[in-house]
Amino acid sequence: MTRLRFRVGKLIRDGLPAMMRAQGLAIFDHRMDEPAYRVALRDKLIEEAHEVQAATAAELAEELADVLEVVMALAAAEGLDMAQIEALRLAKRAERGGFDDRVFNAAVEGRDDLPAVAYYLARPEAYPQED
């Protein structure tokens, strides 16, 4: 039999190495130092967000649970309290609203001397100029 090796290169849940070894896999893992762990958590959040984007209706709750697990781990790693994060969420909601009205912004337009326009100019990848 031929042995096949696959690169994974990402943060995984704590229980997975034992589960994978029980399936007969050799797993090449190590424990990350704090700075690398924080970076990996941010990468994991993006990975999980992509999985939410691709999820079917039946998979959505499970994928959102994964996002929440990563958010909670990242908050803890950064010394943030979930109650503090929830308070900020509520404050932003009170000031700016939520997403209940389903508002989609297709574009903005303004004079180039407006301070708000500088925000968009500083982020050309996120906000490309239209003709």
What does this protein look like?
The protein has helices spanning 16-22, 34-54, 60-77, 82-96, 115-121. The chain has five helices and no strands. The chain starts with 15 loop residues before the first helix and ends in a 10-residue tail after the last helix. Helix 2 runs antiparallel to helix 3 (60-77). The relative contact order is 0.06. With 131 residues, it is an all-alpha fold.
Q: How are the SSEs placed, and which strands pair?
A:
Layout: H1 16-22, H2 34-54, H3 60-77, H4 82-96, H5 115-121
Shape: elongated
Structural class: mainly alpha
Mean pLDDT: 96
Output the number of helix runs.
5
How is the main sheet built? none
Low-pLDDT residue intervals, each spanning 5 or more residues: none
Oligomer: single chain
Order of helices and strands: HHHHH
The percentage of residues in β strands lies in: under 5%
Instruction: Report, as a whole number of angstroms, the end-to-end distance.
Output: 60 Å
Helix content: 40-55%
User: For the CA atoms, what is the radius of gyration?
Assistant: 21 Å
Strand tally, please? 0
In short:
With 131 residues, this protein is mostly helical.
Main features:
131 residues; mainly alpha; 5 helices
